[in-house]
């Protein structure tokens, strides 16, 4: 009985009120989880001491200035440090100096902007707690007006207008950081200018067999065969071999002259031997499959098909235009030679391509 009576006495008592604890609200037995409210606002040292506020302003400006300097360091590193230079960094060992410098300077630039913004908000912007009730997603006009008023009030309390040093250094840091991304465009390489429109082929250049590295004679090309050639003077051990062969690769096919339908193709050939770029005009794959009866060549990547008896025009597949032809003849020594470069750029079309 005594236990029951004790329990009843407790249940009838009012729980300690939040107001008594300084929170301004009351918790009762019926509502033991009442909102305790906000604690009393305590001013920061910067709110009461202008010298402390100035110190915080200088710290924020210093961080923004450090971000600007780091961005300049990023650009300078990108320009000055060779891509093949390595440095020893403990405990990582030997790493690329350029990557290390770019990562460090860009990281410092971004960190200082973030740290400056956080320090600014925590020490100089208003820190008065605001309480607002939840509202529907579709706000009423009065609510939207209040939001705009709150925004204007927040902008005013940020003291951006009264802190020109912060404003200028922040704008400077934000203006310079995007330059880090702009200079990275250099890695896309220099502008091609007209390099894509020319190959190593020129008047008098001998046609050299890709496999034997020997100059080709007309009798080396038999009807029904497909022979691959490259310009004389191009060595597979050269540093630029892959870049040059990707543009100059040539395929030779001997047709019966009466089977050639295109008159210009016949004029540019020698005894039925026609020479066309080996580079597919779709995405640049090497055309390498030849069908003797139809005189068609097929690109194995996406099945673009070209008719070598009719100007190498496209008869099937996604290729956009015919294979460029190389005009050939025979020199006094009986070797096949080019009469110039391809009339148009080889490979896929590109936006700078001239009509």
From TrEMBL:
SUPFAM superfamilies hit by this protein: ISP domain
Keyword Lipid metabolism attached: no
Superkingdom of origin: Bacteria
Assigned keywords, A-Z: 2Fe-2S, Cell membrane, Disulfide bond, Electron transport, Iron, Iron-sulfur, Membrane, Metal-binding, Oxidoreductase, Respiratory chain, Transmembrane, Transmembrane helix, Transport
TM annotation in the entry: 59-83, 95-118
Location(s) in or outside the cell: Cell membrane
Domain Rieske as annotated: residue spans: 242-337
Entry annotated with the keyword rRNA-binding: no
Membrane topology: Multi-pass membrane protein
Region feature (Disordered): 1-49
CDD domains assigned to the protein according to its UniProt record, in alphabetical order: Rieske (cd03467)
Bias-annotated ranges (Basic and acidic residues): 1-15
Coiled-coil residue windows: none
Free-text function comment from the UniProt entry: Iron-sulfur subunit of the cytochrome bc1 complex, an essential component of the respiratory electron transport chain required for ATP synthesis. The bc1 complex catalyzes the oxidation of menaquinol and the reduction of cytochrome c in the respiratory chain. The bc1 complex operates through a Q-cycle mechanism that couples electron transfer to generation of the proton gradient that drives ATP synthesis.
Protein name from the UniProt record: Cytochrome bc1 complex Rieske iron-sulfur subunit
């Amino acid at each position: 009985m005594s236990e029951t009576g004790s329990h009843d006495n407790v249940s009838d008592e009012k729980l300690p009120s939040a107001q008594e604890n300084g929170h301004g609200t009351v918790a009762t037995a019926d509502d033991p989880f009442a909102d305790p409210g906000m604690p009393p606002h305590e001013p920061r040292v910067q709110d009461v001491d202008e010298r402390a506020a100035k110190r915080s302003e200088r710290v924020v400006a210093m961080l923004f200035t450090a971000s600007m300097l780091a961005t300049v360091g990023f650009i300078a590193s990108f320009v000055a440090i060779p891509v093949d230079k390595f440095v020893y960094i403990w405990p990582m060992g030997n790493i690329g100096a350029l990557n290390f410098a770019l990562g460090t300077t860009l990281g410092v630039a971004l960190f200082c902007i973030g740290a400056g913004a956080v320090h600014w908000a925590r020490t100089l912007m208003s820190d008065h707690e605001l309480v607002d009730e939840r509202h529907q997603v579709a706000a009423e006009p009065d609510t939207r007006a209040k939001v705009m008023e709150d925004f204007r009030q927040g902008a005013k309390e940020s003291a951006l207008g009264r802190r020109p040093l912060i404003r200028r250094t922040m704008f400077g840091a934000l203006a310079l950081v995007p330059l880090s991304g702009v200079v990275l465009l250099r890695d896309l390489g220099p502008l091609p200018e007209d390099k894509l429109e020319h190959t190593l082929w020129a008047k008098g250049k001998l046609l050299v067999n890709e496999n034997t590295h020997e100059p080709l004679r007309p009798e080396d090309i038999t009807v029904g065969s497909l022979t691959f050639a490259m310009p004389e003077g191009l060595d597979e051990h050269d540093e630029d071999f892959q870049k040059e062969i990707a543009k100059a690769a040539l395929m030779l096919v001997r047709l019966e002259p009466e089977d050639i339908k295109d008159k210009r193709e016949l004029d540019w050939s020698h005894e039925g031997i026609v020479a066309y770029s080996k580079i597919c005009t779709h995405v640049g794959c090497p055309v390498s499959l030849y069908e003797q009866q139809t005189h068609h060549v097929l690109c194995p990547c996406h099945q673009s098909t070209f008719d070598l008896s009719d100007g190498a025009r496209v008869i099937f597949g996604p290729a956009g235009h015919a294979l460029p032809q190389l005009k050939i003849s025979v020199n006094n020594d009986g070797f096949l030679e080019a009469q110039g470069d391809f009339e148009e750029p080889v490979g896929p079309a590109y936006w700078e391509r001239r009509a």
